Amino acid sequence: MGRMKKLLDQSLRPLIVYALAVLLISIPVYFLIIDWIWENELDKHHYAIREKLEKRLTRLNLPDTAVGDMIAVLDKVQPGFSFSETAAPRPDSLYTIIRFDTFMNDREQFRCLVTDIRVNSRLYRVLIETNMEEIDETILAIAAVTVFFIMLLLAGFIYLNRKTALRIWQPFYGTLTSLRAFRLESGRTVSLPPSQVTEFADLNASLESLMDSSLASYRQQREFTENASHELQTPLAIVKSKLDMLLQSQSLDAAQLQTVEEVYQAINRVSRINKNLLLLARIEHAQFEGTEQVALGDMLVALAAQFEDRFENNSLHYSQSIEALYVQTNPMLVEILLTNLLVNAVRYTPAGGKIDVRLDVGSLTVSNTGTEALQEQNLFKRFAQASGQHAGSGLGLAITREICDRYGWQIGYRFADGVHHFSVRF
To answer: Is the CB of residue 59 less than 8 Å from the CB of residue 52?
Structure first.
């Protein structure tokens, strides 16, 4: 799973990306619009200059020779003008050119108009040009101001969005905090904060209904667990008692004794499954509430002593390396966990094999020799067999996993070099 992200950040990111995209698009658009406006105004200015120049030279009523001399002088002393006499009129030409300017001693951009003016009876071709160097500075200034104000707008938007969103979403966060405190085993609902927002009010109403339904189901399941424990154990105990009497009877032949023995073993298995199922239900419904500090090392030593007969009967070599480790847990549950791990080790260790238990800071490892790896996909499933060689109830490791999940412990399995390794990290 990737890194979790807050809802506010998820909604804010597209807006920031969109604003930056608008900013990037706006700069060239500004450039094109300002360049077009600048060129259009310069063209109007050039035509105005052409009209003034033609009218003033005409009003002077100078002879053609004097007009020629004046235009020659203007051509030399007036920057941005160039005159040449022509025989026939031609269409006007408007264009932009970049060239080296001797006056500015640099490459500059010019807007040019090539047109005709008539003074007396003579026709002159006139080039009027204006340096456009200011347009670059104008566009840069506008772009800088635009970037500044968009960044200012973004910063204000982010601040206001977070400030407003936090206030709007406060009831939602309050609901989350209340839900974290909800526990089925407490038998009561939690108080959800009121909200004037319709969606949050509907959410709280749905959650309250869900909590009520969950508590009702929990109470029913708990009652069923308690009733089943009483109602099932009694008839099973009676059946086992009657079978014990039959097994002690002298009137049964060998075949009948064999049949009664098989029934007795089946009843024992049903009794174990019933106890394990009830135990699973009690664990799931958090009926083991009391906790205390448990010394795992002392409990392991005591359990190993109880298993000595089983080790000897199966010719198993048991070893242990135990360090002091204390956990805050329910003593009965941790004893069940350790017992199940040892029973599992005995079951899957061939005669003459080894079982090694290591307890150090933060972890427990139960290792035992074996012939083949267990089916990991079935290890912790209910009624699933992890190996075809040894059939059990299929609930021991499921109970062990349920206990680990209750306390947030991690249980794992691996098979390497002919050895099964079950480990629990506390």
So the answer is: no
